[in-house]
Structures are given as C-alpha cells and as structure tokens.
Write a structure and sequence with these properties.
This protein is 43% helix and 18% strand. By secondary structure, the chain is of the alpha+beta class. Bound molecules: phenylalanine.
C-alpha cells in the first residue's frame, strides 16, 4: 500500500504542475477524488488487506487524501490569481490621458465588443440582425406587452418625435416583433428554430454623468423553438459570457420585472476581480449585474405570429438584453461612459491595434 501511494503521489505531483487552467484542474480533481477516482480505488485495495494491516493503511490513505486536497486548493488559488492578472493587465492598458500621434483611424471600442459578440453568437448558430433607430410606438411598446398608458412605460424615459407615432428606440427589444415575423414562417413550416441577435443604438432621456448616457448600445438576443426552457437560457448566457471574458463565469438569476418576459430575471455573474469575495468593483456584493432576460411572454409570441390563440405555448423562447456599452466599459476599464460619445481621438485611438 505504501508503495502504491507513493507512486500515485509522484504521478499526481507531476500532473498538477502541468495544469494551467481551472477546467483541467477540475478534471484532475475528479480523476483522483471522484467516486470512481484513484483514491476510491485505493479504498477498494484496503478492503482486501488482512485485518492487522488495515488500520495503518487506512491512515496512509487518509493523509494522502488530505494532502491531495490541500494541493488542489493551493493550485486553484494560484490559477485564479494568474487569470486575474491577465484580465487586469488587459484592462489596465487603457489610459484616457495618453496622447496619441496615431495617423489613421481605429475601431470604436463598442464596435470591437459588438463584433466579438457577433462572432461568438454566430458560432452558436445565431443570425445577426439590424434594426431601425427610429421606430413606432407599436414595435417599441405595444408588441412587447406594454399597452398605451401602462405604468411600465415609465421605466424608459422615451424621446418621442413630433412625427406622429414615432420615437427613438429606447431598447433593442423594439426589434423583437419584426424578427419573430421574419423567421416565424421557417419555424412553423420547416421547424427551423429562431436564433437571432440584434445590436443597436438606443436612446433615453437620462441625466448624463460618468455612468449614464442618453445614447447607448445594447445587444438583444432571442431563441424560439419547441420546448425552450430556462435551462437553455442559462446555458447560452453562461457559454457566451465565458467566451467574452476568456474564463469560466458563474451566473445566477434573480427575479426581475419586464412586461415582455415571464418569468423575468436579472442575470448576475460572479465578480471576476474578487471571485465573489467582495471588492469595490462589485460594491462588495461578490456579483455583477449584467443582463436582464427571461422567457418571452406568450402575448409577445402571439403578436409576432408564432403561436395561435388556441395553443399559446406551442412554441416557447427566451430573450436577453446585454448592455454593450456597459460591457465595453468593463472589458476596457473605461471609467467614464461619456468617453464613448466624446469623439476624443486621444482616448478612442488607443484601440487601434485590437
Ligand atoms: N429591453 C430591456 C431594457 O432595455 C431589457 C430586456 C431585454 C429584458 C430582454 C428582458 C429581456 O430594459
């Protein structure tokens, strides 16, 4: 037994050194600690030993197990620190006071984030759609289960145009109805699920400060098919956010109210800076609020021509609204939202090589 343990220990030490990310670390942990893992195999061997050797061998296995657990924890902490460092290095390279003598133009940081997200969603089979900035009352509100004079309209301080019935889109959800109608036929006739994302500029009458702008970007996404549930929503959000941040993120859902989803949620991710322990970035809560979402309300699917009155739950779907501007601020550690619309070349041209 002693020999078996010391061999395993050697193997374990060398494998642990090779592990550089949390995913492979977890794999290694399962390899050793799961029910079918190597330590359980040792326990089986233990049962075969004569009684007078069992006590000593049991003690050895237990102390090996404790040692392995400790090593895992230490390595996990190391990897998390390294990953944090990478994230912080990536974000700290932005400095809005840096002068530039950059002779040519560069992409706007929001364009960069938008394109990155589009690539991720396209790789998961989503279509990317465009939509107007000037929309009518029906698309922005009524088709989203927000009737005229409903108090939910107060949630969005909307700019109405003097042209009858027109307004500046206050959220990307305004495109939902048109997209449901565009792809509904293929869903109903060919069984092709609707999977679409639609980025866009939105406008609300906000008092402007470092965190609020009257002009900002969102990216909305919907998926509609038979049997779509909250688990599909969680899976897609988690996969997408893990890719955006380049590491596995933990998500949680809290209830949230939006008239066009039922149930509606606020999706939070565990703070990437402190890993949930609480820091100034997450206001000591350990979580960052990132993305409102929910299951598309039956009325919205009905207005979009997806379900009939007789069977309002034939197809179901989820929707989410990502704040692109917010994400760009997080990703590049931009502290003042006003930078984005400032046209300030010193700040914006730092993104030239990204
Ligand atoms: N459109 C909502 C807003 O801007 C966000 C949202 C989108 C909520 C999709 C739920 C589902 O406030």
């Amino acid at each position: 037994m002693k020999e078996m343990i010391s061999k395993l220990k050697e193997q374990f030490d060398s494998k642990l050194k090779e592990v550089n990310d949390l995913g492979s670390l977890e794999q290694l942990r399962l390899d050793y600690m799961s029910k079918k893992g190597r330590i359980s195999e040792l326990m089986k061997e233990l049962a075969k030993l004569p009684n007078d050797q069992k006590k000593e061998a049991g003690r050895l296995i237990n102390s090996f197990k404790e040692e392995v657990t400790k090593h895992f924890e230490n390595r996990r902490d190391q990897i998390i620190k390294l990953e944090e460092q990478v994230l912080i290095n990536a974000t700290e390279s932005y400095d809005d006071s840096m002068p530039t003598n950059n002779p040519c133009g560069s992409y706007h940081p929001i364009t960069l984030v938008q394109r990155e997200l589009e690539d991720i969603f396209e790789s998961m089979g989503f279509d990317v759609e465009d939509y107007n900035e000037i929309v009518d009352d029906y698309h922005c509100f009524e088709a989203l289960n927000i009737p005229k004079y409903h108090p939910a309209r107060d949630m969005q301080d909307t700019y109405y145009l003097t042209t009858k019935n027109q307004l500046l889109k206050s959220h990307t959800s305004a495109a939902q109805n048109a997209i449901l109608k565009k792809y509904g036929k293929a869903l109903r006739e060919e069984g092709r699920p609707i999977k679409a994302v639609f980025p866009g500029r939105c406008f609300r009458n906000e008092a402007i400060d470092a965190c609020h702008e009257n002009t900002f970007f969102q990216m909305e996404g919907i998926m509609v098919d038979k049997n779509i549930s909250v688990s599909n929503l969680i899976y897609f959000m988690k996969t997408m956010l893990s890719q955006v941040f380049g590491r596995e993120v933990t998500v949680r859902l809290r209830p949230g109210f939006f008239p066009f989803v039922e149930p509606g949620f606020e999706l939070d991710i565990k703070c990437l800076i402190c890993n949930g322990e609480g820091c100034s970035s997450c206001k000591n809560s350990g979580w960052l609020e990132l993305c409102p979402c929910g299951m598309i309300h039956p009325n919205v699917l009905k207005y979009g021509g997806i379900n009939t009155e007789e069977d309002p739950y034939e197809y179901t779907g989820f929707a989410f609204g990502l704040g692109l501007t917010r994400l760009a601020m997080m990703k590049y550690a931009v502290k003042d939202i006003r930078t984005f619309n400032s046209g300030d070349l010193d700040s914006l041209s730092q993104f030239i090589n990204r």
